[in-house]
Automatic annotation (TrEMBL), chains A, B:
<dbReference type="GO" id="GO:0005737">
    <property type="term" value="C:cytoplasm"/>
</dbReference>
<protein>
    <submittedName>
        <fullName>LAQU0S11e02058g1_1</fullName>
    </submittedName>
</protein>
<dbReference type="InterPro" id="IPR003719">
    <property type="entry name" value="Phenazine_PhzF-like"/>
</dbReference>
<dbReference type="GO" id="GO:0016853">
    <property type="term" value="F:isomerase activity"/>
</dbReference>
<dbReference type="Pfam" id="PF02567">
    <property type="entry name" value="PhzC-PhzF"/>
</dbReference>
<feature type="active site">
    <location>
        <position position="52"/>
    </location>
</feature>
Length: 290, 290
């Protein structure tokens, strides 16, 4: 039986139309979750052809505002960054809860805290640790790139498993030419989602960042939330900040986008917490027939 | 300045939701074409991430019903099959002209005639000729495939340049495993859009078909209109039909779709004309902010 429900396609991590990372959001808040087959959700996500399509359901955990299920064209994910920010914006519009400051998203990794600060939506990063990778693995990654790392890369498992490394500066990151077929073979071999490279803008608390995941069918992701989280954790590891540090990440220029991410590393009572945020604009607004 | 215009995402060449080939259609019928920059159209098509996004404008040729501009994520095309069928369905809904039988689409290749036959929309194929390719080229293509051709492939330039070849039967076509990186290198070398393979279902006027275009960033196209046209022309060349011949094409099973195309080869006063058609269902209906 066909049902028609509200639908939005939201541009995430940008304030400029069509210059961020899109996510399709289907509103099933008024539909029983067990009346919709997993295969139906997967078909929709395969059809939109976006890196992620999400489905809003009523939360089953009473401490959460809604439940989010996140699908790539091929599978369901426990968590993802830009879909979380875009779906939160869609939820705010669908529910009419404009003035709220905090929301709690129920998803595969558990409860994710969201902070709405003006036009910017932050998610609190799930706990993760940086792990060293071997010098052979580092050399192999460098063999896929037109320039070497300026700091030793590490592996950050934030849900997706990103290998993160710093380049000399912002320009060398922007100019980098990866060999995508070699990189695809390598990330598959090492079981990594992909490679994040970043370079600092001189005199600014700002990094240029690029995310390559050819093994996942995404040669270069335009603007990557989980990758931004991995970068923040990597920088904390490298620089051992003793106090809170906020910085900006610019992404997507090489793939015709203009993404902007805010990353806050917060030190609270001896704990380090990570918040990743950005703006989200609904560009397509309507209904979908399921 | 932001304007908001009607938007649809239409599923083409299927009667089952999310099982055809999607096209995003933006309705600029009430907007002056020269007020919208080419770069804006390209940004939208890059963002939707679909193989094609189309834009309906008022026709400038008074013999046409509308003008269609067709974009891939990377460039503008003079013509494409499934976007033509899907955009015609969207036009019928936008304009409320439900009972019409013929429409004329103004696009890069000139005027394309459309026939609306119940739920099925046919386009008349632009003129094209089959050309032989060398035995070396054929051997090279076979080197990318897990099985050989049963009939010598030819090149069909129908806008996109498809190399088309028959396999033993429908099953051998469905089961075929291409080496996408070798095929990408080869189609790029020979200047072809991609490779079409097809195999006949025994005892039926029906072919299984697959379309590979890794050089265009589409490893396997789910359901391909221009490829179906190329197949019809190739079969006419191989079989020298002396009278009209109608057949069905099944596509997309290997990429989670269930596409169905009707191909009519019509002999009229010594001329051969080709009509490619299928159903189209609007699944997303709303507005887009440009």
């Amino acid at each position: 039986m066909t049902i028609t429900v509200p639908f939005k396609q939201v541009d995430v991590f940008t304030s400029k139309h069509f210059k961020g990372n899109p996510v399709a959001v289907v509103n099933f808040l008024d539909v029983e979750e067990d009346s919709i087959a997993h295969a139906t959700l997967q078909s929709i996500a395969n059809w939109t052809n976006l890196s992620e399509t999400t489905f809003l359901f009523k939360a089953t955990d009473p401490s959460c505002d809604y439940k989010l299920r996140i699908f790539t064209p091929m599978c369901e994910l426990p968590f993802a960054g830009h879909p979380t920010v875009g779906s939160c914006q869609a939820y705010l519009e669908f529910s009419g809860r404009g003035a709220v400051r905090n929301l709690y998203q129920q998803c595969g990794v558990g409860t994710v805290e969201l902070i709405i600060d003006g036009k910017t939506i932050f998610f609190k990063g799930p706990k993760a640790k940086a792990a060293d990778i071997s010098s052979t693995e580092i050399r192999n990654y460098e063999g896929c790139l037109s320039a070497g790392f300026s700091q030793k890369p590490m592996l950050l498992d934030v849900g997706p498993k990103w290998v993160v490394g710093l380049m000399q500066d912002a320009k060398s990151c922007y100019d980098l030419e990866p060999d995508f077929s070699k990189l695809k073979a390598l990330t598959t071999k090492y079981g990594a989602t992909g490679l994040i490279v970043a370079g600092k803008y001189s005199g600014e608390d700002k990094y240029e960042m690029r995310a390559f995941a050819p093994g996942e069918g995404v040669a270069e992701d335009p603007v990557c939330g989980s990758g931004s989280l991995a970068l923040a954790m990597y920088l904390q590891e490298l620089n051992s900040y003793g106090a809170s540090y906020e910085f900006e990440i610019s992404q997507g220029g090489r793939v015709h986008r203009d993404g902007k991410v805010s990353a806050n590393i917060e030190h609270r009572d001896g704990e380090v917490e990570y918040f990743i945020g950005g703006e989200a604009i609904t560009l397509v607004n309507g209904e979908i027939s399921v």
